[in-house]
Amino acid sequence: MRSNAELPKKLFIKTYGCQMNAYDSERMADVLIPHGFEAVDNPESADLVILNTCHIREKASEKVYSDLGRLRDIKRDRGPSGSEMMIAVAGCVAQAEGDEILRRAPVVDLVFGPQAYHRLPEMLTRAQTFNARGGRERPVDTDFAASEKFDTLPDSQQTPGAAAFLSIQEGCDKFCTYCVVPYTRGAEYSRPVAPILAEAKRLAAKGVREITLLGQNVNAYHGNAGKGETASLGQLIRRLAEIDGLARIRYTTSYPGEVDDDLISAHADVPQLMPYLHLPVQSGSDRILNVMNRRHTAEFYLALVARFRAARPGIALSSDFIVGFPGETNAEFEATLDLVRQVGFASAFSFKFSARPGTPAASMDGQIPEQIKMERLAALQALLEKQRQAFNAACVGRSLPVLFEKPGRHAGQIIGRSPWLQAVFAEGGAELIGQIIPTRIIATGSNSLRGRIHTDTQIHSETKAAAE
Ligand code: SAH
Ligand code: SF4
Ligand code: F3S
Predict the structure, then answer these.
(1) How far apart are CA 292 and CA 279, in angstroms?
(2) C-alpha span between 294 and 281 (Å, rounded)
(3) How far is CA 447 from CA 53, 232, 401, in A?
(4) Element (H, E) at 388
(5) Alpha helices in 153-284 (DSSP H)
(6) What integer pLDDT is reported at residue 131 of this predicted model?
């Protein structure tokens, strides 16, 4: 029997999807820890399991239900004490499906969306009470006010690593025809400048050297800067660069159609802004871009890349692609390959179009057969992989500043990130974690670089100019 007297104590959060969700999961822990919870790293021993879900493609979304099946088994295997285990579904599937989840998965005790988790303690208390008919109450909270969440979230008490995320913008008003984000995250909202700077200063004081500013459409940022003024992303970056100890700034994800001069010039002027940019393009065909409602052409994208490269020579690009969008012809797919050849990407994510309920593209004519989607994805990925490996191979022999973040797989090894976000392994002591150290790249692995730490300042300064 479920007891009313005590709240569950051990917390396990599983995160799916994008970095916004990773950030939200940490903040959920921040909300719950002051209420007597502690984080554990497996669901078996947990009193509260939260699945922080992603709705972006069908596969991600359906994974939640298979995981819920496993949790049901864990709960059953725990016997009578299993009834104390609570299961919550959070994030974008929760927002999109709401109480449908309760119907499909009786094991779920509560459901809450991305803008509601500041109310978690209250929801948990409700979920633990019995209603008049003797059943349990299963709260569903999919309210949409992002501003309220940010106003009420407590400061984090957790110890961050050397690199941290900072959410500055939420939601999206772009309505690309394939995408669920405008429905799961709501309208665009920018946090004001002051609390962002305060959060960044707190992180820096705790030893964070690198922050990644997060937003679904992060360059739509237009935060209240006080005195009736509004700050753009470029202006915010300049303010953040003044914070002592913050050596690296990144931002993701940007929307090409809304990049402004301010942001491009920040890449020229702010040395802390890393020379790496995730700039999703989705397709190289103007017709497809138009039906996707991306609001720009391939030529516009290429010109934008050229402007970033002029502002910051050596900047590396990454992107997102969708193949097999409804109506995509072979020639239109070839246009995507062409664009990839013209840009040259350091890394990229590519996906088969997934028809998402409620989006315009799901009911468009000309849905592409799975077999063709698979072939196109394989061809695109082969090209992108070749480019990635060429980019990595070109790093061998160079000295790069690496921010070391954590111990490696074996003793005496540490892992960090290059300016271009490549994982770099090197021999070194734990005392180097949290430092940015010149590291000569000596080999490439399948998903990482191997480096040797050196302190030859002459080599460092000479290659630093090339790398940053
Ligand atoms: N805000 C970002 C992207 C968020 S979603 C942007 O505007 O670029 C991350 C990526 O998932 C998208 O860039 C897109 O490539 C992919 N994606 C989104 N919806 C999809 C769908 N229905 N099918 C396949 N891929 C999709
Ligand atoms: Fe989705 Fe488009 Fe918004 Fe990106 S810009 S989150 S792809 S609707
Ligand atoms: Fe997924 Fe929601 Fe992020 S749908 S990609 S978790 S915004």
Answers:
(1) 16
(2) 8
(3) 26, 34, 18
(4) helix 370-393
(5) 181-185, 193-205, 233-240, 261-269
(6) 62
Q: Are 118 and 149 in contact (CB under 8 A)?
A: yes
Per-residue pLDDT, averaged over 415-428, amounts to: 97
* 3-class SS shares of the chain: helix, strand, coil, % to 5: 40, 25, 35
Instruction: Choose which residue among 92, 173, 179, 295 to substitute to test ligand 1 binding: the one with the highest number of ligand atoms within 8 A of its C-beta.
Output: 179
- 356-378: pLDDT as tens digits: 999 999 999 999 999 999 999 99
Entry field: residues in the chain: 468
Distance CA 335, CA 286 (A): 9
pLDDT class of 236 with cuts at 50, 70, 90: very high
CA 349/CA 384 separation, integer angstroms:
9
Mean pLDDT of the chain: 92
Amino acid at 66: S
Decide if 43 contacts 72 (C-beta within 8 A). Answer: no
Report the distance separating Cα 434 and Cα 245, nearest Å: 11
* pLDDT surpassing 90 at residue 176: yes
Nearest C-alpha to atom 10 of ligand 1 is from which residue?
Answer: 320
How confident is the model over 240-252, as pLDDT tens digits?
A: 999 999 999 999 9
- Residue 106 makes CB contacts below 8 A (sequence gap 6+) with none
Quick one: which H or E segment has residue 405? strand 399-407
Task: Name the maximum alpha-carbon separation found in the chain.
Answer: 76
The protein residue with its alpha carbon nearest to ligand 3, atom 1, reads: 54
Quick check: CB of 182 below 6 Å from ligand 2?
yes
Instruction: Give the end-to-end CA distance of the chain in Å, rounded to a whole number.
Output: 60
